[in-house]
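Dear support,

We are seeing what looks like truncated structure output for some complexes. This example has two components. We would appreciate it if you could run it in full and send us the complete token output so we can diff it against ours.
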Amino acid sequence: MDLELILMQLFSGVALGAILIMVALGLTIIFGMLGIVNFAHGALFMVGAYAGLYIAERTGSFWWALVLAPLLVGVFGMLIERFLIRPLYKRSIDDPLLLTFGLGYVLVEAVRIIFGTDGVPFSTPSALTGVVDLGVGYFPIYRLFVVGLVAVILIALWLGLEKTKFGLIVRAGARDPLIMRVLGVDISRLWLAVFGLGVALTALGGVLAAPMRNVNPEMGALVLAEAFVVTVIGGMGSLLGAVVAGLGIGIAVSMTALFAPEMATIVMFGLMALVLLVRPQGLFGRPVGA
Amino acid sequence: MTSPSLAVPAQGGKGDLRTTLSAWRVPLSVLALCVLPWVLPSQALAVNVLIYGLFAVGYNLLFGYTGLLSFGHAAFFGGGAYLTGMVMVHLGLGWFPAMVLGVLGSGVLAAVMGSLSIRTRGIYFSMVTLALSQLVYYVALQATAWTGGENGLRGFTVSKINVLGLTIDFLDPVKKYYVLMVFTALALWFVSRLLNSPFGAVIEAIRENETRARACGYDVERTKLIAFIVSGLICGLAGAMSAMHLAIVPLDSLHYHTSGLVVMMTMLGGAGSFFGPFVGALVFLLIEDVASTWTSHWQLIAGLIFIFFVLFLPKGLWGTFLAWRTQR
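Here is the complete output from our reference environment:
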């Protein structure tokens, strides 16, 4: 097995990891702030891909899809928070989880009704097709673009959380919502914004994944399980954990695909089991209090 | 889950509906099951109620009574079905040893999954159970030689079964119903006894307040694991019954939709009550039966009904009925 092939497969893993990071980040931000697991996250990823497909077909431009689809789905996410999840905050922690689970069903069926049950191909935008020679091998331009864009978003997100007032409030709100409320911060509006942001991130992941994977109503189910694996390994609520675990899982899956293809999907669940045995709170998670 | 209202057993006031129901719950269930095939639109539906009702009862032991929200119970239902079928196909054993091995195999699977997932709490638990059950799904998908992969497991048909020297025609829907009903009734009796035992009190104590239960000196981890295994065994039995009923095992039985199905059924009926899960399975299957004649997208209707219940009737149909009767 030559080095070039291994390098290219490694890079494929990074691109796969970049998509996983987008999904897991949204999941982990929503959990860190609102304390709920969004079981509709995978379905919203799928809705993002379909929204991208629809906008790209209408406008004839992938770039409009890339910008508009996450925005629209993000706003849709805010409506979900406002009208379905907000009534449940005073209830048990399981209720928003159950509700979003039911919502996932509804979204998948709604997409099936509108777009049909079969998969739809999503062609790579013409400006990003082809491969580029980086000296060590030929890399698909589209995947380089995905990795680059995700890196930019990660930096922007990090700067936003560390350097802006909004980021400060978000971080403080995650620590202690009650004190923030006492200090006069409108926590409800903050949570609305954070939920919208988390959903927009997964929708962006969906648009980015569309040319790499076939767009179909079931695509969210697999992604949800993958995102769970990533957040459990990285530690719930940890942004760094989501990034490290996302990359790690992406690389592990694609390297396994090279040597033992039939084990590719199974290996990530094995890794999760291993992490759970050693560190139940995840690599970067704080220990869970009783 | 909003804490189900059965934390304190009703203090035996005379004529208290809940006390009466509780004391007679097993005979009442068996009576209801006996008349079921004659009141439902079809016998196939009645058999499904037996199977999914039992699945929900097993699930409820963990979700409703122990307070652990698992999203991976398809692994035990599908696992029980696959193991039962595989024993018949690959080992050539009869239906009864196949069912026994299928159920025991589910128990082993539950022991492994349970010991991994109870290391985590709350929301993590739900995520880990879902991810581990996806692992089982992909293993079944890949091990084509054993499981038939995407096509599901085929090649076993139970046409006649021998019980204590009697030969029963298993292809007759009514006879099949009553044979499978015996298993459901026995399992219900077992669950009822278990819930009335000190063990039943401890799992409810853990649901209400884990820290306090630990402070009282109970081994919380071990109790949770046992509850997980028993729940897995009962769901495995439901799966084994499903294999016997369908004579195939579809790969879908391991899919996370199957896990979701049992969560929905349990919620719909009312988690944490004895009759709730069965009522939920019955109503859910009736909705499916009716709605699927109108539209192939009946899951949309199921999802909307489920959202409605989480928002407005978190105690479920049976739980709400009980609360309403007790308040008067």
